[in-house]
Design brief:
Helix content is 41%, strand content 17%. Helix 7 runs parallel beside helix 14. Strands 1, 2, 3, 4, 5, 6, 7, 8, 9, 10 and 11 form an eleven-stranded mixed beta sheet that branches. The chain folds into two domains: 174 residues, Periplasmic binding protein-like II (D-Maltodextrin-Binding Protein, domain 2, 3-Layer(aba) Sandwich); 160 residues, D-Maltodextrin-Binding Protein, domain 2 (3-Layer(aba) Sandwich). The chain is α/β, with parallel strands linked by helices. The chain has 14 helices and eleven strands. Strand 1, helix 2 and strand 2 form a beta-alpha-beta unit.
Length: 347
C-alpha cells in the first residue's frame, strides 16, 4: 500500500516537474523598438498564448538611437524583430543590411504608396503627418487668422508665436525640416528658416518640451503654434476631462505643409526564431494590432482594412498632398541639411 502511494507521489512530482520545465522552455521572441511604442497589453498576451511563446519588448531610446543599437549589434542581434524605422532613416537601415526579406501575407491590406521597400525587408506599419498645429481658442480670442500654410509662419503677425523641435534631436523636428525642404526646395529652405528665426521662432530639444512646455494649450505655455501631428487634435479631445464638441487645436495640412512619416517593421538577420518572427510581423500588420494603433500611438494604421475610431474620423486629418522626399534623398542629404539648419537657426 505504502509502495503504491509512494509511486503515485513520485509520478505526480515528476509530472509537475515536466510541466514546470515545459513552461520554462517556452521560446522567447524579442521585439526591439523605440520608447514611444505603445499597445494594449492584452493584445501582447494574446499573441503569447496563441503562439506559446514569451514576447519581450526591448525599448531602446528614440527611433534613431534604437536603430543605431541594432546596427552596432548586428553580429550578435539583441532582438528578432525591429519596429520603428521610419522613412527618414530607412535608407540607413537598409544600407546596414540588418534586415532579411519577409513578404508577409498581411501586406495585401496595405496600400502600395506606403510600401517603400520592394524587397520587403521593411514593411509599413503606420503613418502620420507632421505639421504645425495651432490653438484655436487663442486665435479666436485675439481676433487673428490662424496660419494656413508654411509660408504664413514668417508673416509679422505670427512673430513670437511658433515653437519647433530641433531636427538634430527630435524625430518630428527632423520631419518638419524635411517638410520645408520638400515645400521650398533645397535651394530655398534655408531662406525660409532665416526669416522664421527673425520672426522669433522658439526651438526645443524634443516634442514634449515643445507641446507641453511652450504650446499655449499647456499650462504656462505662451506660443499658440507648435510642430506636432495631424492626429494631435484627436488626442486633445480624447484626453480632455469634458469631451468638447470641437477639437481645441487644428492641424495645417494644406499642400506641401506636412511631411508624412511612415514607420516600418522588419525581421532582423541572425534571428534564431524565424518562424515566430514571421508570426510577430504578421500580428503587427494584422487587423487587431492595427486597430489598436490610433488610440495608443496616435498615428494612422497602415492596414486600410483596420477600422478607425470615431474620434479619428471626426478630428484627425491626413494631408492630401504632403511634401515628399525619397528615403534615398533623405539619407544623402540629412546630415548636411541638419548642419546647415543648425548654422542658420541656432548660431
Amino acid at each position: 500500500m505504502r509502495t503504491c502511494y509512494t509511486v503515485f507521489l513520485l509520478t505526480m512530482l515528476l509530472g509537475s516537474l515536466v510541466s514546470l520545465h515545459a513552461e520554462e522552455a517556452k521560446p522567447v521572441i524579442t521585439l526591439m523598438t523605440h520608447d514611444s511604442f505603445a499597445v494594449n497589453e492584452a493584445l501582447l498576451r494574446a499573441f503569447e498564448k496563441k503562439n506559446r511563446t514569451e514576447l519581450k519588448i526591448l525599448k531602446s531610446g528614440d527611433a534613431g538611437a534604437a536603430l543605431t543599437q541594432a546596427i552596432l549589434s548586428r553580429s550578435n542581434p539583441l532582438a528578432d524583430v525591429f519596429f520603428g524605422v521610419d522613412n527618414t532613416f530607412m535608407s540607413r537601415a537598409l544600407a546596414a543590411d540588418i534586415f532579411e526579406p519577409y513578404p508577409s501575407p498581411m501586406l495585401q491590406g496595405i496600400p502600395g504608396h506606403l510600401k517603400l521597400d520592394p524587397k520587403n525587408r521593411l514593411l509599413p506599419v503606420d503613418f502620420g503627418d507632421v505639421c504645425v498645429n495651432y490653438d484655436t481658442q487663442w486665435f479666436a480670442e485675439k481676433g487673428i487668422s490662424p496660419p494656413g500654410a508654411l509660408e504664413d509662419l514668417i508673416q509679422p503677425r505670427y512673430k513670437g508665436l511658433v515653437v519647433v523641435q530641433n531636427p538634430a534631436t527630435s524625430s518630428p523636428g527632423l520631419a518638419f525640416l524635411l517638410a520645408t525642404i520638400g515645400r521650398f526646395g533645397e535651394e530655398a529652405y534655408l531662406d525660409f528658416w532665416r526669416k522664421l528665426r527673425a520672426n522669433d521662432v522658439y526651438v526645443t530639444a524634443g516634442w514634449s518640451e515643445a507641446y507641453y512646455g511652450q504650446f499655449s494649450r499647456a499650462s504656462g505655455g505662451t506660443r499658440p503654434i507648435v510642430v506636432s501631428y495631424a492626429s494631435s487634435p484627436s488626442a486633445e479631445v480624447y484626453y480632455s476631462e469634458k469631451k468638447p464638441a470641437a477639437a481645441p487645436t487644428a492641424a495645417v495640412v494644406s499642400p506641401g505643409s506636412a511631411f508624412r512619416q511612415i514607420e516600418f517593421v522588419g525581421v532582423l538577420k541572425g534571428t534564431r526564431q524565424r518562424q515566430l518572427a514571421h508570426r510577430l510581423v504578421d500580428f503587427i500588420l494584422g487587423p487587431e494590432f492595427q486597430k489598436d494603433i490610433p488610440l495608443h500611438m496616435w498615428v494612422f494604421p497602415a492596414n486600410s482594412e483596420a477600422p478607425l475610431p470615431e474620434i479619428f474620423h471626426k478630428f484627425s486629418r491626413q494631408a492630401s498632398k504632403p511634401a515628399t522626399l525619397s528615403p534615398q534623398a533623405i539619407e544623402a542629404g540629412r546630415e548636411k541639411w541638419v548642419e546647415a539648419w543648425t548654422e542658420v537657426v541656432l548660431r
